[in-house]
Amino acid sequence: MDFFKLEKNGTTVKTELTAGFTTFLTMMYIVPVNAIIMSKTGMPMEALITATALITIFSSILNGLWANTPIAMSVGMGLNAYFTFGLVLGMKVPWQTALGVVFLSGLLFLILSLTPLRVWIMRSVPTDLRRAISAGIGSFIAFIGLKSMGMVIANPAVLVGVGNFKNPSVLLGVLGLVLVFAFYSWKLKGAFILSVVTTAIVAWIAGIAPYPTEFFSLPASVSPIAFELDIKGALTLSLFPVIITFLITDLFDSLGTLAGVGYRAGLFKDDGKELQKTLEVDALASTMCAVVGVSTTTAFIESAAGVEEGGRTGLTAVVTGLCFILTLFMMPLFKAIPENAIYPVLVMVGVLMFGELSHINFKDTAIAVSTFLIVIMMPLTFSITNGLAFGLISYVLIKLIKKEFKDINFGILFLTFVSLIVFIVQEGH
Fold first, then answer.
1. Is the pTM above the cut of 0.85?
2. 192-203 pLDDT, tens per residue?
3. Which of 14, 74, 327, 367 has the maximal Cβ count within 10 Å?
């Protein structure tokens, strides 16, 4: 096991195996959750289950072997919701074209990861704005979760209102929320998947959803969605801001996760080679996911669970990836899980992302206003792109008004220009 440098990193094979399995338990939920969310686009759920499992296996194992870090990867929460509800259902973009957007953003991410441009973009956007983007996406996906559960419904008089809590399906969603909040508060390993399974069992017993007739089957083919991406259709001016949004969000999401997990575990200390290699794998996986038929991949914060168990090398990520092979054969079980057992997880993920607000300096007027607009406009406009645009434009505007020119660089001006394109080219969705 010299390949993973276990002794140098102060770990053992047993510790790495335990850590890898722990990470698997905490992020196993992504397979049914992502499949149910993306199936709303019209893509077949069976193929999505297989594709999600395959990209998780590929990216996690590759990262373990190439970067030798205990970071597992899979389809990112937030961008999968934006892909489905914002891009395909909101902007009426065909899912094939949306996959083209994902591919192009992943390709740009890969180029950035191999050049100094990545560092330039990172330095261009203030840390507080990056945190605001994370919090905004949190509010966006939590809103999607609540809406999909029926807890929040359309109301012509006031736009939104409270749902029908006499509906058994809505009550099931409430139960799911209580369980995921409780399990996470108790710091249970695999809190998300535990809440999903428990809620599903209650639904089956209560007759709200049909029992699974079987639990295991052979993996479904990914042919209905693999290699179906429409790159040419994505190369339009109206989708350019969306490509940039996917790029920026994936970049910041990955770096935020790697900072939180990596530095806490004592990784990425020396010359930054491990961080660089992990970002390269993330970028490559982000292009590959569009080919397979799913939205953007990212480094998973759930990797922290494995790190807490002592995982310090790529062997942890390899073990996690290998564990996900099991999910390829769990199709009947995943398909039997009712949607309202899944959506509470979206709300909880939103809560965790929203927590980034606690680190933001609200004494800076430009940061305070832009943060507010990012967080409020993402759910209100049902678009990460629009929320980001409002935030960047207001940040530059206030800095200009206050004559704080030193805080405005070419990078932030470029992103603000892209944000202006959002309002010029869109027709109001």
1. yes
2. 999 999 999 999
3. 74
